[in-house]
Amino acid sequence: MPQFAYKGRNARGSLVQGEIDAGTIDAVATQLFNIGITPIDIKERAEKAESDISFSSYLNKKPPNLDDLILFSRQMYTLMKAGVPMVRCFTGLIQSTRNFKMVDAQKDILSNLESGRDLSSSLARHTDIFSTLYISMIRVGENTGRLEESFLRISQYLEREKETREQIKAALRYPIFVLIAIAIAIAIINIWVIPAFIPIFEKADTELPWQTMLLISTSDFFVSWWPLILASVVGLIIGFNLYTKTEQGRYIWDRFKLKIIIVGDIINRATLARFARSFSMALTSGVPLIQALTVVSRAVDNEYIGEHILNMRNGIERGEALTKTAALSNMFTPLVLQMMAVGEETGQVDDMMTEVADYYEREVDYDIKNLSASIEPVLIVAIGAMVLILALGILLPMWDLSKVVR
């Protein structure tokens, strides 16, 4: 969308000037009249060359993240609650948003709003930024006349979503770092440490224990084939990333994550908390039950659990109760199923789902705080076995050599 520089006078007759993004000069004039400025001069500004873009601007070309969406939703709620017209909301946001891709999306949304489209349809043109749940919430807010409340609920949900993702990352971060450290230690030992002892062992006229033979064989393999091993590791990482971007690969990986020892249970409950929170928000906002389950299945960020949610939707379409379909999915504990049943009987499913989300989030918080204590015994045993083999493989032949010297 082109950018225009303008000069005009406000209600007091004072000269004002600035810049506005709009489709045409007439659109600029209309916006100025709407904010009480009488335009005197409007000129289209030439676009900046690529060489004029600073390094910080280049960094801001990255796709919008949750922080950008939270800030956008909060700002829209504040502006709309204050009674600012929709067009003026986006005009102001375009000037203050730092992420370039978000700015481009806002310019396109503003252009669509000026063309007479509603906000939800304009947002639906940017599904790479706004999720199906986000768009559905905005559409319900438009239909009920409570759009600012929709933005408030979305911002609160996205903040919870960010916390959930941080919890899952925290659950995975510690074991991943430890495994990487172990892998690096094994590589250093096999490529540099053990080869320093091999000449000493070869000169000794003694039979080497099996631990030493194992270390020598492993070290010879690493020294001879380390370029191929390194290339294989890099290839596996790239192949894994590409495979998990496919539909089948993402489904298999999402199912596997839930079965990882200790960590998988935390990821499962964090994902169910996300489902309960988003489902409650959708029902509270007035989204129909079937549609709510459909959009929530895409919002949980786990294809395996998303498939179970879609199966719940299919059961409800057949006339089954929500609690029954939830029990058949085998995703929830008996305590959570009882809470669902109470909510269904009293007609307060949204409130009960909020309680379910709170319940799972409290459990996840507790488990993450105790994650180190749960994983440390497993890691200590693994590291201890590795150190034992290393110590026996090096110290036993050295002990035999000391006997020969005596």
Q: Tell me the name of the CATH homologous superfamily of the largest domain.
A: Type II secretion system (T2SS), domain F
Average pLDDT: 81
> What percent of residues are in strands?
5-15%
How many strands appear in the DSSP assignment?
A: 3
Structural class: mainly alpha
Named CATH architecture of the largest domain: Up-down Bundle
Spatial order of the strands forming the largest sheet: 2-1-3
Query: Would you state the CATH class of the largest domain?
Result: Mainly Alpha
Explain what the structure shows:
With 406 residues, the protein is mainly alpha-helical. The chain folds into three domains: 3-47, Roll (Ubiquitin-like (UB roll)); 63-158, Type II secretion system (T2SS), domain F (Receptor-associated Protein); 162-406, Type II secretion system (T2SS), domain F (Receptor-associated Protein), CATH 1.20.81. Helices cover 75% and strands 5% of the residues. The protein contains 17 helices and three strands. It has helices at 25-34, 55-59, 66-81, 86-96, 100-114, 119-123, 132-144, 147-203, 210-244, 247-257, 263-285, 289-299, 303-317, 322-328, 334-346, 349-369, 371-405, and strands at 3-9, 15-21, 38-44. Strands 2-1-3 form a three-stranded antiparallel sheet. The longest helix is centred in the middle third of the chain and has 57 residues, at 147-203.
